[in-house]
Every structure is written in C-alpha cells, then in structure tokens.
Amino acid sequence: MRPIHRVFVTGATGFVGRVVVQALRAEGYVVRCLVRPGSERDLRGFEAIERIPGDVLAPQALEEAMAGCDAVVHLVGIIREHPASGATFYRVHVQGTVNVAAAAAAVGARRLLHMSALGAREGARSDYHRTKWAAEEAVRSSPVPWTVFRPSVIYGPGDGFVSALARLVRRFPAIPVPDGGRQRFQPVAVEQVAQGFARALALPATVKQAFEVGGPTAVTLAELLDLVADALGRRRVVKLHAPVALVRPVARLLPWFPVTPDQLLMLQEDSVCDPAPFFAALRLTPVPLAEGLRRMLG
Length: 298
What we know:
- By secondary structure, the protein is α/β, with parallel strands linked by helices.
- It has a domain at 6-155 and 189-215 and 272-286: NAD(P)-binding Rossmann-like Domain (Rossmann fold).
- The chain contains eleven helices and 13 strands.
- The chain has helices at 15-26, 59-66, 89-106, 127-140, 162-171, 190-200, 221-232, 244-253, 261-267, 276-281, 289-297, and strands at residues 6-10, 30-35, 50-53, 71-74, 111-115, 146-151, 154-155, 174-178, 184-185, 188-189, 209-213, 219-220, 238-242.
- The strands form four sheets. It has a seven-stranded parallel beta sheet with strand order 3-2-1-4-5-6-11, sandwiched between helices.
- α4 links the parallel β5 (111-115) and β6 (146-151).
- α1 packs across α6 (190-200), α3 runs parallel beside α4 (127-140) and α7 crosses α11.
- The longest helix is centred in the N-terminal third of the chain and has 18 residues, at 89-106.
- The chain is globular and about 55 Å long.
- The model has no long low-confidence stretch (mean pLDDT 92).
C-alpha cells in the first residue's frame, strides 16, 4: 500500500481536533482541515495546514474539499443539541458521518478514522450514544478501510469536563454531584487520543478495529474531584449529594443549565473500559491520571 501523505480532518477547530492536527503534523502528514465559516479563528497559529471552507452537512461540497486526500479523520460531534440552528445529534452525528464516509469513498481515500464515544451502542438510553452508534454503523459499512475510536472522558486544556470541574473547585468549597458522584470514568489525556489517531494511519493492524479508549485509572466522579483539587493544590472539596430526580426538571427548564437531560442519562452509567488493546496497538505508554492532571492544572 502506498504511504499516506495528505490527511483530511473534520472537526479540526474543536478541543480534540486541534491536538489531532498537531499530532498529524508531528508525524509528517500534510493536513487539510474542513473549516466552517466563522470558526477560522480557532486555527490561529496553525500555519502549515490547508484550510477548506465547508460543512459535513453540505455533502455536495465535501467531495471537492477532499479531492487529493489519502485519508480522512472524522472528529465532528456535539454534546449539546441546538435545534434552532439545525445542530441535532441525528443531523451532526449520523447524517454528517454518512456524508463524510460517502465522500471518502468517492474520492478514493485509503483510510477513514472515526471518533465515536465509549457507551455508543444500539438501544442506549441517551440520544447521544444512540446516534454515535448509528454513525459507527455508517463507517463500518464504508468500503474505505476504517478504524473507530471510542473514548471515555478526554481531558486537557480547554476541555468541557475536567476544566469545568477545576473551575468549580477553585470557586466553591462544596460542590453538588449527581447521586453522590458514584459514576465511574476513565479519563484519558487528549495528547494520547491524538497520537492514537496519528499513528493508526501507518499501522495496518488497526484496520477494521474499534478501540475503546481510556486512561489507566478508573475513578468515580467524587474521586476525580479530589484529584483535581490535589492538582490545584487545594483542599479536598465537600461533595453535596444531588439526586438526579431533582436535577432533571431543572435541566429541562433551563437551557443554560450546565448539564442537559441527555447528559444526566449518561452520568447515570459508568464510562470505563479495558484500554490495553488501544495502548498496545498504537504503541503508546499510558499517562497516569494524577500526572496528567498535574501537567494540565498545576
């Protein structure tokens, strides 16, 4: 097989996308980014990349944007719906992925790497997980050799979860946690996820594989709060039990509430896995959670 040279990236302006672009560049790939109008500023400082305006929901322009690319890295996703602007889980996750996979096949791409989520499955309780599974199905039906990544919580500067916990720890001595914070997560450093994507392109053993991605340590939400406090050099916070049954009506009524009803459903189940196959196949050494949090927050 001819080596991969030019890589097309969707979702490049996002938290994970920017780090994936850096990892691809570090591996020597030429990177072409699909950029929605108005988000160009999010790629400031990335001088050695190609920028193509477009949207995964505009299939007629995707083939032209992808032309000449050897591989496609599809990272687009949302955690909160905005129906007024058409940004629903179904349209972004499912239809967007169908469009990207079809365009990749049409231009003769030789690899398709897809970002899914741990917990994606048929019949999942949350719309997020169900649509992520439907997107995976679209990728698996593609004739382009594919690889799927299903991460647990991804942390790093600018993320939407651990950074939010850090802000709470800095500001408040006590923090409400759904159902006492018993939910378990396996946070993984964003740099390791990005390196996994970049390395997979050159590893034939990753073709037609779906990797569950997590860090080396599973922790409860309450334990994660303590680790964040330690990384910040703060006292451990007091956790206030917040029954989900009381939080859910507030989340439904207030659109600005930090957690959506769909996210509450996800918070009621664990997000853990065996990440050993991911680290072994991608030849990565796991970063301990406490060390990663110190790098991020210390």
